[in-house]
Design goal:
Strand content of chain B: under 5%
Oligomer: heterodimer
Shape of chain A: globular
Number of helices of chain B: 17
Number of domains of chain B: 2
Structural class of chain A: mainly alpha
Helix content of chain B: 55-70%
Largest interface: A-B, 41 and 52 residues
Structural class of chain B: mainly alpha
Number of domains of chain A: 1
Number of helices of chain A: 6
Strand order of the largest sheet of chain B: 1-3-2
Strand content of chain A: under 5%
Number of strands of chain A: 0
Number of strands of chain B: 3
Distance between the termini of chain A: 24 Å
Largest sheet of chain B: 3 strands, mixed
Radius of gyration of chain A: 16 Å
Distance between the termini of chain B: 59 Å
Helix content of chain A: over 70%
Order of helices and strands of chain A: HHHHHH
C-alpha cells in the first residue's frame, strides 16, 4: 500500500497557496503601478484570507520548531513538517532571502495582509515572492513523488 | 520572457484540447457509475482553461513587474495539466466494463457516509493506494487482477480511511498530537545525562515520535477497514501482504525511521487485537497463528527498535477508538443485519464480501465459479 496520499494532499495544498500568492501578487503589483485591476479584486480579497489563515498556522508550527531541533513537531504531517523545516532553514540564508517574512515570523504577515499602506504592500509583495520560492521547491518534490521524473 | 510564457500557455491549451477530445470519446463516459467523476474531470479541465486564458490576458497587459508571478502561475497550470493528463483522466480513459464492480462498491462507500457523499470516486490501475483529498475526487488504485474479483475489495476500506481522516483533519491531527505527547513521555527516561549518548537518544526519540504521525493514520485506516469490512478486511489484508518478504515482518531501525507505514506484522498484531475485541475470535486466531508460523519459519523475532513497545498499546488503541468515534464509519455488523436503511442507490456489498471470504476459506476449489455467479447477481441488484 502506497503513501502517495501524503504527496497528493501536499500537492493540492501547495498549488492552492501558489494560486493565492500569484493572484494577490499580480493584483498588488498592478495597483502599485496604477492599474486598477477591478476584475481580480474579489479573488485577491479571497487570496488574502486564505494566506492569512495559512501563515497563522505556519507561525504556530515554526515557533514549535524553534523551541529546539530535538523537540518533535506533533500533529503535523511529514510534508508540512518538511515545508516548515525548509522555511526555518531559509531564515538562516540571508543571501537568498531578505524580506520581512524571513527576518521575523510568519505571524507578522497578518498585519501586512490587513494593511493598505503603500510601503506595506511593497513589503508584502517581496515576502510573497520569496516564500513562493520555498513553496515551488516543495511542490516540485510532491509532483516528482506523484508523477515520477523523466 | 513574455514570448516564452505566451508560447507555454498556448501549448497547455493545445494539449488540453487533445485531452478533452480523448475524454469525450473515452469508454468511461458511457458508464453511469463513473458519471460524477467524469463531470468533475470535465469541470477541472474547464477551470484549467480559464486559468490559462487569464495568464494570456495578463501577458497582454505588458507589465514587466508581473512576469515572475505569471511564470509561477504558468508552472502551476502546467503541473496541474500533467496531473490531469497522467493521473486524473486515467480512470475515464482506461475504463473497462469490469470496473462496474469496484465502482458500485466505491459509490456505496461514499454515499453511506455523509462527509463523503458528494465526493466522486473512481478506480485506476496500480498498487493499492488512493488520492484522498476532500477537494478532489478520490481515485482508488488497485491491481487489475484484483479489480475483477471479490476478495481484495475490502482493501478499499483502508484507503477510504485516509479520506475520512482528511475530512476530519483538524480533529484527527489533535488526537494524533495527544498520542505523540504520550509516546514522548513513555520514551523519556527518568534520568537524563546531557552527554553525547543522551543527545543521540533525544534525536532518536524525536524521530520515533514524529514517525508516529503517519503510523497513527495508517493504523486508523486499518481499523476503519476492519470496522467496515469485518474479518473480510483482515483476511484480504493478510493474504495480500503475507508472501511479500521479510520486510513485512521486520526492518532495521534506520529503515523504520524513513517509513510511512508500520511494519506489516505489527499492523497484523493490532488488527488481531481489535478483531478479538470485536468478537471475531476465530478469525483473529487464524491470522495470529499464520503470521507467527511464517515468522518462525523465517527465523524472525519481533523487534521494532523502540518504535513500538507493548506499553504503547493502550494509548494507541484509545487514540484509534477516538478517531473512529470522530469519523463514524459504517459498521460491518450493522450492514450484515440489514437493519439500517442506508441513503445509497447502490446495494451494500458487505454481506457479499463476508460470504466470499467464507466460501474462499471453506471451499477454495469451487470459489471462482461461485464468485462469477455472485458478481453477476450483485451487479444486477
Amino acid at each position: 500500500m502506497s503513501t502517495q496520499w501524503l504527496a497528493v494532499q501536499s500537492f493540492e495544498r501547495s498549488q492552492d497557496m501558489l494560486g493565492a500568492m500569484n493572484t494577490l501578487s499580480i493584483h498588488l503589483k498592478l495597483r502599485l503601478a496604477g492599474v486598477p485591476d477591478e476584475e481580480r479584486r474579489q479573488a485577491a480579497a479571497r487570496a488574502r484570507e486564505t494566506l492569512t489563515t495559512f501563515f497563522k498556522k505556519l507561525d504556530a508550527t515554526v515557533q514549535e520548531t524553534q523551541r529546539g531541533e530535538a523537540t518533535p513537531l506533533l500533529g503535523v504531517d511529514p510534508r508540512l513538517r518538511q515545508l516548515v523545516k525548509s522555511f526555518v532553514s531559509a531564515k538562516r540564508d540571508r543571501r537568498r532571502f531578505h524580506s520581512v517574512l524571513f527576518q521575523r515570523m510568519p505571524g507578522d504577515m497578518v498585519s501586512l495582509f490587513a494593511s493598505e499602506k503603500e510601503e506595506d504592500l511593497e513589503a508584502l509583495v517581496q515576502c510573497l515572492a520569496e516564500f513562493r520560492v520555498i513553496l515551488e521547491e516543495h511542490v516540485y518534490e510532491d509532483t516528482a513523488r506523484i508523477l515520477g521524473e523523466i | 520572457m513574455q514570448e516564452i510564457l505566451r508560447h507555454s500557455n498556448v501549448h497547455v491549451l493545445h494539449e488540453l484540447d487533445r485531452l478533452t477530445t480523448l475524454l469525450r470519446d473515452a469508454p468511461g463516459v458511457q458508464m453511469t457509475e463513473l458519471e460524477p467523476y467524469y463531470t468533475w474531470v470535465k469541470n477541472a479541465g474547464e477551470g484549467l482553461r480559464q486559468s490559462v486564458e487569464q495568464n494570456l490576458r495578463d501577458l497582454n497587459l505588458g507589465q514587466r513587474d508581473i512576469l515572475a508571478s505569471i511564470a509561477s502561475e504558468t508552472q502551476k497550470v502546467t503541473r496541474f495539466f500533467h496531473m490531469l493528463d497522467q493521473r486524473l483522466a486515467g480512470p475515464v480513459l482506461r475504463a473497462r466494463p469490469s470496473d462496474r464492480l469496484c465502482l458500485r462498491v466505491l459509490r456505496w462507500l461514499h454515499e453511506v457516509h455523509p462527509q463523503t457523499l458528494h465526493i466522486p470516486a473512481a478506480v485506476s490501475d496500480g498498487q493499492f493506494a488512493s488520492y484522498p483529498d476532500p477537494h478532489w475526487p478520490t481515485i482508488y488504485f488497485m491491481p487489475p487482477s484484483a479489480q475483477t474479483g471479490l476478495l481484495y475489495l475490502p482493501l478499499f476500506f483502508h484507503e477510504f480511511g485516509h479520506l475520512l481522516y482528511a475530512c476530519h483533519e483538524a480533529e484527527m491531527d489533535a488526537l494524533v498530537e495527544q498520542l505523540q505527547e504520550t509516546l514522548a513521555e513513555l520514551l523519556t527516561p527518568g534520568i537524563q545525562r546531557e552527554d553525547l549518548h543522551d543527545r543521540i537518544e533525544v534525536e532518536k526519540r524525536r524521530t520515533i515520535v514524529e514517525t508516529w504521525y503517519a503510523w497513527a493514520q495508517e493504523l486508523f485506516c486499518d481499523a476503519v477497514g476492519l470496522t467496515i469490512g469485518g474479518p473480510a478486511f483482515a483476511h484480504a489484508f493478510s493474504l495480500h501482504l503475507q508472501m511479500l518478504g521479510r520486510g513485512h515482518f521486520s526492518l532495521p531501525a534506520d529503515e523504520l525511521a524513513r517509513r510511512d507505514h508500520p511494519v506489516t506484522w505489527l499492523r497484523i498484531q493490532l488488527l488481531v487485537h481489535r478483531a478479538r475485541e470485536m468478537g471475531h475470535q476465530e478469525d483473529a486466531e487464524i491470522l495470529d497463528t499464520r503470521w507467527k508460523t511464517l515468522a518462525t519459519a523465517l527465523g524472525i523475532v519481533a523487534d521494532y527498535h523502540g518504535f513500538y513497545e507493548e506499553e504503547f498499546l493502550p494509548a494507541i488503541q484509545e487514540t484509534i477508538d477516538d478517531m473512529l468515534t470522530e469519523a463514524e464509519p459504517v459498521t460491518y455488523s450493522d450492514e450484515l443485519t440489514e437493519s439500517t436503511a442506508r441513503a445509497s442507490l447502490f446495494s451494500s456489498p458487505i454481506r457479499l464480501l463476508h460470504r466470499a471470504w467464507k466460501q474462499f476459506m471453506e471451499n477454495h476449489d469451487e470459489f471462482r465459479q461461485w464468485e462469477e455467479r455472485e458478481i453477476v447477481t450483485f451487479l444486477q441488484s
